[in-house]
Amino acid sequence: MRGFHERIQRDTEQQMTIVLEAMMIASLRYVEINDKPLDDTFISSETSRLQTSVMMGAMEGLRTENLQALIMIAFTEIGNGNLEKAWPIIGTLTRTVEYMGLSVESEVHERKRGLLSDSSSLPEPRDWLEEEERRRIFWNIFILDRISSIIKGWNPGINSGDFHRRLPICGGSWFHNEPAVTPYFGNWEQPAAHDSHGTSPCYSVGSNAGGAERPASTYSIRTGDRATGDISKIGALAYYIQSIDSLCQISKTFLQPTVDFTNRQEVSLWLTKFKELDLRLVHWKMYLPQQWKDSGVSRKIMPGVMDPSMTLANATHNTSVILLHERIAYPDSELLGLNIPSQFSAQNCLNAAIETANITTKYLGGSPSARPVPPQMGICAFVSARTLLVHSQYYNTPLSKEFQNLMDNLTDMSNRWASHEQADQTKKTPNFFDQLFSSLKSQSNQSQEAATGHTIRSQGLALQVEGSVFSSRPGTSRPFQDSHAPAMPDVPQTVQNLTRGMHNPVQLSNHQWNVDTQSPHTVSKDDLFTISQTLLNDDFLELDRIVSFEDMMAVGNMTQYYGPNS
Q1: What is the C-alpha separation between 206 and 194, in angstroms, rounded?
Q2: Which stretches are tagged as biased composition: Polar residues (predicted)?
């Protein structure tokens, strides 16, 4: 950050102009002169002019400043609700980082051999600050790529095996110019790496971490700290990167593939993938340092303040739990004949949604009302609220009060994003958070109609946002449970009485889990039988998956940091 400030003051190069113009596009709506906001007409015309300038300038060469400007434009377009404008920008960014050699560390970068000499790669960084700046450019593009993949169901543009990057250093060390070496990002396509704590998918260490099918010599790096990296030097942004990649991988490898549920082998492989992904989520939470389990509340620096990136990481982790478990939690006719822990998964979905509501409510209540939040936080609130709707309808239980809290949170997020534009709601253009709110409102109305006896068909777990589909099951729709839907087994009282903050599920009997121990179909000892029994085992059911607001309170009496209405 200091390097950027120094360049702004020192350099008169044209390269920095494009960065400043992009910053103006993202921030003009928040600017006040003499305590008065800028005129809406001026903001609209100026941002339009600046955006044309930035987009044209960014296409004129391969420079890091151009990437920084496009990153800001892409995030702004998503937040503004202009998703179709953001996707081409993100597609350009994901390819350009490869062209410029930003997808690998400078210490292992090898120039490509082409027909013509390569002039697109960057020179060696002048110091560690410039290297960290380049690293963070890559990771911000990585985040944009994952967001677009999650929303649209596309395959990621940056595959896990195609980059070799260290995680970003913690913000404090970066700001205070305290160099350190961090671990490499772990590769989902390789077996989980081992760190000093034990098995964890969060980090890759060693000379070939993060690579796929490449010669070992490609990753020969200096010995000592540079070979392994110091896990304690990563911060909230690194954990957010891990959590959003987990969410993307769940969508890509578990939700998107088509499964023939009449084929026992395919079902067995599908459930095995479910278990593998679930254990990765368990490990991620298990190895979080306490100061990050509580979203940074217990840090020595700024104690009691919820770190924005870590709050987002924890909410995204809970969203991953929901999206992984929801198909099993609310099974349709294809899954009703399987021995799967549906009610246990429903409990996980419900608890994760409630905890996400608690976390986002506390974060919004404790941060300045003028501070915007990133689109990903809206996605987390949206998925959680939708899950509460589906759970209430599917199991015929009262709608949790946290649903309204999440709706209120989306309204708050929308107002924060719009800033001074919210003064006149009639002129306010619906932004991304408004679109999410409207979709939930529509689903809620449909749910109420179903409760009054009207027969409806809803997209259920498909997420509809202004015509764009964020779908866990592409090409399908699922009815809400109503009088015409298939009859569901009775829900045990232990599930009906789910309580907030319950981490470990109540141990249920085989009868309560609807396990038929006598059926000749279940005693066939094939792979499907084996994995089904594993998922019903207490060792699996008792794992701690969900990040709870109670984790923040576990460090001591933190109520002093929050007002009664925060």
Answers
A1: 10
A2: 469-480
Q: In which region does residue 198 sit, left (phi positive, over 0), alpha (psi from -120 to 50) or beta (all else)?
A: left
CA distance 271 to 293: 28
Residue 340: how many CB atoms within 10 A of its CB? 24
Task: Kindly report, residue by residue over 414-447, the tens digit of the pLDDT.
Answer: 999 998 655 556 667 899 999 999 999 999 998 8
548 close to 554: Cβ distance less than 8 angstroms: no
Fill in the amino acid letter for 35.
Answer: D
CA 391 to each of CA 173, 361, 457, 486, 498: distance values in angstroms, whole numbers, following the listed order: 44, 21, 16, 16, 12
For residue 176, pLDDT over 60 is answered with yes
495 membership: H or E segment, kind and range: helix 493-496
Angle value at C-alpha 18, between 368 and 87, nearest 5 degrees? 75
Enter the pTM of the model: 0.81
Residue 469 exposed, middle or buried by CB count within 10 Å (0-12, 13-18, 19+): middle
What is the pLDDT, as a whole number, of residue 298?
Answer: 52
Domains of the chain by residue range: 277-305+317-566
Please answer whether residues 251 and 472 qualify as being in contact, where contact means their C-beta atoms are separated by less than 8 angstroms: yes
Look at 30-34, 42-46, 233-237, 552-556 and tell me which has the smallest mean pLDDT. Answer: 552-556
CA-based radius of gyration for the chain: 24
Distance CA 186, CA 188 (A): 6
Distances, alpha carbon 362 to alpha carbons 99, 357, 440, in Å: 42, 9, 21
